[in-house]
Specification:
- With about 300 residues, this protein is mainly alpha-helical.
- The chain has one domain (about 5-260).
- About 65% of the residues lie in helices and about 0% in strands.
- The protein has twelve helices and two strands; from the N terminus they run αααααααββααααα.
- It has helices at about 5-25, 30-50, 50-65, 65-75, 80-95, 105-125, 140-145, 165-190, 200-220, 225-250, 255-270, 275-280, and strands at about 150, 150-155.
- Strands 1-2 form a two-stranded antiparallel ribbon.
- The longest helix has 29 residues, at about 165-190.
Length: about 300
């Protein structure tokens, strides 16, 4: 038994369970049920990763708040890279944050991604080889091996000779790379405060991710089975939607999305943003109240005329 077998069992069990449920609607041997079952795997995994996503958001906002201190350290130790790195790591430790937190959801999905890759690769061999719960299930194994997504077997990759497979996989690779790029760009243009790009490690890291990840997916995607491309395209859509919701409903202070939300709130109250912020300022002194008069209304005193 391999140490990866428990992972194969978990991934294949989720997919097979969704397939059996969907088989009552689309048919047991339908490619639609197998394709949607992979989407179901994404829903399960991303739901489990929500706490990690929340931690990622908190870490990113903590890094944003630390930008002035980080810049001061970079200026102070600009001629000593080692000392600069030590002080930055000390700063991260004190504030319990991590500059690599934005990569955590991707890294957490890597084992699932690899397990699904191996399960689908087994379906593409002759004869098909089952991994996880598919092992020994001949009827189920054949059904999965023959399942198609728009005419392309879910176990096939771009490197296969079929023209249909190449067209389907090429479309999925383009979609996967495009959604990766737009998700990262959405974060940078709407979800991050306007920061000075000079010696800004956080902004440089985000720019690298903006172009590096789509390039990696575009190059490596030709080796991924159709089912894996469906998985990654779906998880990209989930990430984009999740990020869009957070940016719109709970944006990072100082970001363009935060400024837009403040303007919207101020417009509803019929005032400017500055007036609304002054009302919410805890240091604002309350306006002096006029003294209340008790009893009958006091008549103004008449001035005596000088004789």
């Amino acid at each position: 038994m391999s140490i990866l077998d428990p992972l194969y069992i978990a991934v294949s069990w989720v997919v097979v369970t969704f397939h059996k449920l969907l088989g009552n609607i689309f048919g047991d041997d339908s490619g639609v049920s197998w394709s949607i079952a992979i989407v179901g795997l994404v829903v399960v995994i991303r739901t489990l990763l929500i706490p990690l996503f929340v931690k990622q958001i908190k870490s990113q906002r903590a890094l944003t708040a630390l930008q002035p201190e980080m810049k001061a350290i970079q200026q102070k130790y600009k001629d000593d890279r080692q000392k600069q790195s030590e002080e930055l790591m000390k700063l991260y430790k004190e504030h319990k944050t991590n500059p690599l937190a934005s990569c955590f959801p991707i890294l957490a999905q890597a084992p699932i991604f690899f397990a699904l890759f191996q399960v689908l690769n087994g379906l593409g061999t002759e004869p098909p080889q089952g991994r996880g719960v598919l092992e020994g299930e001949i009827a189920l194994l054949e059904s999965a091996a023959n399942a198609e997504f728009f005419g392309a077997p879910i176990s096939a990759s771009f490197m296969d000779s079929s023209t249909t497979v190449k067209i389907v996989t090429a479309c999925l690779i383009v979609f996967m790379s495009a959604t990766t790029f737009t998700t990262q760009r959405q974060l940078m243009t709407k979800g991050m405060p306007k920061l000075d790009s000079k010696n800004n490690m956080m902004l440089q890291q985000q720019k690298i991710m903006l172009y590096l990840f789509p390039f990696i997916f575009a190059v490596s995607g030709v080796y991924f089975p159709v089912g894996v491309l469906i998985y990654w395209s779906t998880t990209n859509l989930w990430t984009w939607g999740q990020q869009f919701y957070v940016i719109k409903r709970n944006p990072t202070p100082g970001s363009p999305a935060f400024e837009a939300l403040q303007k919207k709130k101020a417009a509803k109250l019929g005032m400017t943003v500055q007036e609304m912020e002054s009302l919410n300022d805890p240091k604002r002194k309350p306006a002096a109240e006029e003294p209340k008069q008790i009893g009958q209304r006091q008549q103004p005193k008449k001035k005596k005329k000088k004789k």
